[in-house]
Amino acid sequence: MYIERLKSKIHCVRVTDANLNYIGSITIDEDLMDAANIIEGEKVHIVDNNNGERFETYVIKGKRGSGDICLNGAAARKVQVDDVVIIMSYAMMDFEEAKHFEPSVIFPKRPDNRL
């Protein structure tokens, strides 16, 4: 049996930009991506602590060390700049493996989203 389990989490980062005129996705500082074990193109679940919105999109690499968290395209309508969001990804794994798997969870500092 396989189950879906939390793989990666970037806990409580500040939205730095929202770009409605982009084709879609979330841009994340590459340092944060590396620390949370998230890769470009990976599907992520976004939760906005300010307004309760929950949605899914995919990741685009942002400039390393920038602290950028930018929601693009339609997702830009679900957030405001300075909102605090949680970014999570999940992985399918064998039930026994899942019991012992340790997700990558990071807690960047606000307001600059640096590690």
Based on Cα principal axes, name the global outline.
globular
Strands in their spatial order, largest beta sheet: 2-6-3-5-4-7-1-8
Total of DSSP H or I helical runs spanning 4+ residues: 2
Helix content: 10-25%
Largest sheet: 8 strands, mixed
N- and C-termini, Cα separation: 36 Å
Rg over CA atoms, rounded to whole Å, is: 14 Å
- The structural class is mainly beta
Counting DSSP E segments of at least 2 residues, the number of strands comes to 8
Could you tell me the mean pLDDT?
97
Describe, in short, the structure shown.
The protein is mainly beta. Helices cover 11% and strands 47% of the residues. The chain starts with a strand and ends in a 9-residue tail after the last strand.
Can you give a write-up of this model?
With 115 residues, the protein is mainly β. Helices cover 11% and strands 47% of the residues. It has 2 helices and 8 strands, in the order βββαββββαβ. The chain has helices spanning 30-36, 95-100, and strands spanning 2-14, 17-19, 25-29, 43-48, 54-62, 69-72, 84-94, 104-106. The protein has an 8-stranded mixed beta sheet with strand order 2-6-3-5-4-7-1-8. Strand 4 and strand 5 form a beta hairpin. The longest helix is centred in the first third of the chain and has 7 residues, at 30-36. The radius of gyration is 14 Å and the shape is globular. 28% of the residues are buried. The mean pLDDT is 97.
Strand and helix map with partners:
Elements: E1 2-14, E2 17-19, E3 25-29, H1 30-36, E4 43-48, E5 54-62, E6 69-72, E7 84-94, H2 95-100, E8 104-106
Parallel strand pairs: 1-8, 2-6, 3-5
Antiparallel strand pairs: 1-7, 3-6, 4-5, 4-7
